[in-house]
Specification:
single chain, alpha/beta, Rossmann fold, 8 helices, 8 strands
């Protein structure tokens, strides 16, 4: 397994940024008879863009879970970027995180690393805020991602369910999300790219091919109700999704366990393409 740290200048962010990239490579322990049958010149990997939560950065998944081990055995490339506390959105006053995540980063990764360009081989996932970012990216750019993983999170509900960014704490100077920089006035997010539900309904109405979705949440998690709301909307709209829940709270014990479930759910080719 190769673990690569890359620091580079992003046009969308207008600053240097970091990613960690996991690339499976041959190891005799996994297949003593033929350890390198998937590793050859010209090979491309199925790729998961894996997002951190609030307060985190590109090192979280590597430091706090066993994602390296899981990726190696699944023959899955994993790209872990930083998204600050910006909800992975293009900020009104600040970096353009959505453009970076959905356009610039895949282009950069495919230029430097053996990542498949095919939609069917491109996935996005995350935990908590990263779950919301992953769902938002999958809903807004269904042409890029074929599968979306959300752990302990769900969709952003702003226009149609009586919630808004303001209610989530933008008036509180101690809140971690700078909504007055992320969103235009009146800072509630309604009708913006962050407003998942109306975008999703419009896609369904127009017959847009959407990704498959995976959602998992702990039954003692404070975000449980958001996950149930996401689950209900997906069921109502007839989306292709898988829902799992189990004992757990909003912590790395749950995320480390359920990222394994999610990787199995991806139904990977377990080889390069």
């Amino acid at each position: 397994m190769a673990l690569i740290h890359c620091n580079f200048f992003s046009e969308a962010l207008r600053m240097n940024t970091d990613i960690n990239v996991i690339i499976p490579t041959p190891h005799p322990v996994e297949n003593p008879l033929n350890p390198g049958n998937y590793f050859h010149e010209g090979a491309k990997y199925q790729t998961l863009y894996l997002l951190h939560g609030t307060y985190g950065d590109y090192t979280d998944w590597q430091r706090l879970s066993s994602i390296e081990k899981y990726a190696q055995f699944a023959k899955l490339m994993v790209v872990m970027p930083s998204g600050a506390n910006a909800m992975y959105q293009d900020m009104v006053y600040g970096p353009q995180y959505f453009t970076y995540l959905t356009e610039e980063l895949p282009r950069y990764v495919r230029t430097l690393f053996p990542s498949s360009e095919k939609r069917e081989d491109t996935f996005i996932g995350g935990l908590s805020m990263g779950s919301m970012g992953a769902y938002n990216a999958g809903i807004r750019r269904p042409d890029v991602y074929s599968k979306v993983i959300g752990l302990s999170g769900g969709m952003n509900f702003l226009s149609l369910n009586g919630t808004n960014a303001k209610a989530e704490g933008q008036e509180d100077s101690t809140a971690p999300w700078p909504f007055k920089a992320i969103l235009p006035p009146p800072f509630d997010g309604k009708g913006t790219g962050m407003d998942d539900e109306p975008i999703l309904r419009e896609h369904v109405k127009n017959g847009v091919v959407l990704p498959d979705f995976y959602l998992a949440v702990g039954t003692e998690d404070f975000i449980y109700s958001l996950s149930q709301k996401t689950r209900a909307i997906m069921a109502e709209l007839g989306l292709n999704f898988t829902y799992e829940e189990g004992p757990g709270i909003h912590d790395w014990d749950f995320w480390d366990e359920y990222i394994q479930h999610a990787i199995k759910w991806l139904n990977l080719k377990n080889t390069t393409v």
